[in-house]
From TrEMBL:
The active site is at 175 (charge relay system), 275 (charge relay system), 387 (schiff-base intermediate with substrate), 387 (charge relay system). The lineage of its organism: Eukaryota, Viridiplantae, Streptophyta, Embryophyta, Tracheophyta. Belongs to the phosphatidylserine decarboxylase family. PSD-B subfamily. Eukaryotic type I sub-subfamily. Its cofactor is pyruvate. Residues 213-232 are annotated as: Disordered. Heterodimer of a large membrane-associated beta subunit and a small pyruvoyl-containing alpha subunit. One of its GO terms (cellular component) is mitochondrial inner membrane. Catalyzes the formation of phosphatidylethanolamine (PtdEtn) from phosphatidylserine (PtdSer). Plays a central role in phospholipid metabolism and in the interorganelle trafficking of phosphatidylserine. This is Phosphatidylserine decarboxylase proenzyme 1, mitochondrial.
Length: 432
C-alpha cells in the first residue's frame, strides 16, 4: 500500500509554542488585573467614548470613499452625455430585507455619544473634509458641539444665508442639489423620480391634500376652442364664441396658474435645517410612517416609489399665489425629522409599523382656515442626516391684458444638477 504525504501550506504550532503563547496571554491579563476590579471597570468606561469615536471616524472614511467613487462614476457618465435611467438592481431588493429603521436608530444613538472636548475639532474637521462642509459658517466654536449629531444640525452665523427679498419669487428651503423640477399637468399628475419612472404627487402628499382641487382648476383652465355662447357662465380661462370669434371672455383677465415641483437632495455635508420658501399659512401637517431607504442618486435610479415609500413629514398650506407644500423625506440613518413649529412630533419611533395600508397621522393647525403664519426664510424643520425635500407649489403662468400682451410669466431660475442654498431663488416671475 502506497502512503501519501500531504504537505500543508502552514504548520500547527507545537506544544512548546502553545505554552509560550498561553504564558504571554496570562501575563497581559495579569498586568491589567493588578489594578483591581474597580480600576478595570473605570478603564472599560473610559474605553467606550474613544471606541465610539473610532467607529464614527471609520464610518466617515467608508462614506467618503463611497461618495468619491459614486461621484467619479456620475461625472464619467455625464461627460459621455448619458442621462441616468431607472434600472432596479439586486441591491435595491436586498435593502428591503434589512431592518433599516432599527439600524437608523442605532446610528442615531451613536451620533449622540458625547465626544471628549479635545477630540471634537479633529472629528468635525475630518467630517468637513470628507463632505465639503464650510467650517467658517457654524454659529459656535467646534469645541462647543458635544456630539457629532449636534454638529450635524448646527445653526449658522447670522447673515450666512441671505433671503432673496423679491416678493415675486420662491426661494430654496434647504442647501442641496436640484434633482428634478418641472410643471405638473393633467389628471393623475406625476412627479418624475428619474428618467423612465415617475410617481403620483397624490401619493407623496396624501389623498386628502387640497392640491387635487387646485389641479382640477388648472385642468379646467386649459385654453380651448368651444362653441359656447358669449353669455355662458362655464368656468374657463379662454372661451371663443362662434358668433363673435374675436370676443374673449372676461375671465381671460384673471391670472392663470400652474402647479410646479422641485426635488432637492441634501448631501451629508450640507446645512440640514429647513426654512420657509415663501410667506405662507401652514394649514396641515401629515406624518407618513414608512421605510427608510437611502435617497442618494443610486437609490433614486433603482428603488421604485422611493419618496412615497419612505417616512416623511408634509407641511401644506397657502401663499399669495395659491397652494404650497413641503415634503421632508427621511432616509437611512435619518429617520428623525424635527419640526420647530411642532416640537412634540416624533418620527422613526420603535413602535412604528411599516405597512402601506397604515393611515398617516394628520394635524390641522389652529385656527382652522388660518393656520400658522410663517415668513420667507423662517426656520421650520430640520434633518438629523442627509435627505430630500420636495416642494410643490402654485405659481402664475400668465396674465393677459386687453391688448393681448402677457404681464407675468413664471420660470425656474435653476436647472437639474445645480447646487442651491437656502434663500436663493428657485423661480420667479415679473409683474407689471
Amino acid at each position: 500500500m502506497r502512503r501519501l504525504r500531504v504537505q500543508l501550506p502552514w504548520r500547527l504550532p507545537g506544544p512548546h509554542r502553545l505554552l509560550r503563547l498561553s504564558r504571554r496571554l496570562h501575563a497581559s491579563a495579569g498586568s491589567g488585573a493588578g489594578a483591581g476590579a474597580a480600576g478595570a471597570g473605570a478603564a472599560q468606561g473610559k474605553f467606550l467614548l474613544p471606541g465610539a469615536s473610532a467607529a464614527v471616524l471609520l464610518m466617515l472614511g467608508v462614506l467618503h470613499a463611497k461618495r468619491m467613487y459614486d461621484d467619479k462614476q456620475l461625472v464619467e457618465r455625464k461627460e459621455q452625455g448619458i442621462e441616468p435611467e431607472f434600472s432596479p438592481d439586486l441591491k435595491a431588493s436586498f435593502l428591503r430585507l434589512l431592518p433599516l429603521r432599527s439600524m437608523s436608530r442605532v446610528w442615531g444613538s451613536l451620533m449622540e455619544v458625547e465626544v471628549p472636548v479635545f477630540m471634537r475639532p479633529a472629528i468635525y474637521k475630518a467630517w468637513a473634509r470628507a463632505f465639503h462642509s464650510n467650517l467658517q459658517e457654524p454659529a459656535l466654536p467646534l469645541e462647543e458641539y458635544p456630539s457629532l449629531q449636534a454638529f450635524f444640525i448646527r445653526s449658522l452665523k447670522e447673515g450666512s444665508r441671505p433671503i432673496d427679498p423679491d416678493p415675486n419669487c420662491l426661494v430654496s428651503p434647504v442647501d442641496g442639489k436640484v434633482l428634478r423640477l418641472g410643471q405638473l399637468r393633467g389628471p393623475g399628475t406625476m412627479i418624475e423620480q428619474v428618467k423612465g419612472f415617475s410617481y403620483p404627487v397624490s401619493s407623496l402628499l396624501g389623498a386628502s391634500s387640497s392640491l387635487h382641487d387646485a389641479t382640477e382648476e388648472d385642468i379646467s383652465g386649459e385654453p380651448t376652442e368651444q362653441n359656447v355662447p358669449e353669455s355662458s357662465n362655464a368656468k374657463s380661462w379662454w372661451r371663443v364664441s362662434v358668433a363673435s370669434p374675436k370676443l374673449r371672455d372676461r375671465t381671460l383677465l384673471s391670472p392663470k396658474r400652474g402647479i410646479f415641483y422641485c426635488v432637492l437632495y441634501l448631501h451629508p455635508g450640507d446645512y440640514h435645517r429647513v426654512h420657509s420658501p415663501v410667506d405662507w399659512s401652514i394649514f396641515k401637517r401629515r406624518h407618513f410612517s414608512g421605510n427608510l431607504f437611502p435617497t442618494n442618486e443610486r437609490a433614486v435610479r433603482t428603488i421604485r416609489n422611493l419618496y412615497v415609500e419612505n417616512e416623511r413629514v408634509v407641511l401644506e398650506g397657502q401663499w399669495k399665489e395659491g397652494f404650497v407644500a413641503i415634503a421632508a423625506v427621511g432616509a437611512t440613518n435619518v429617520g428623525s425629522i424635527k419640526l420647530l413649529i411642532e416640537p412634540e412630533l416624533r418620527t422613526n419611533g420603535p413602535g412604528s409599523m411599516i405597512l402601506h395600508s397604515q393611515p398617516y397621522d394628520e394635524r390641522v393647525y389652529e385656527p382652522e382656515g388660518t393656520g400658522m403664519m410663517v415668513k420667507k426664510g423662517q426656520e421650520v424643520a430640520g434633518f438629523n442626516m442627509g435627505s430630500t425635500v420636495v416642494v410643490v407649489f402654485e405659481a402664475p403662468l400668465s396674465k393677459a391684458r386687453e391688448d393681448g400682451t402677457v404681464s407675468s410669466d413664471f420660470g425656474f431660475c435653476v436647472k437639474a444638477g445645480d447646487r442651491i442654498r437656502v434663500g436663493e431663488a428657485i423661480g420667479r416671475w415679473s409683474r407689471s
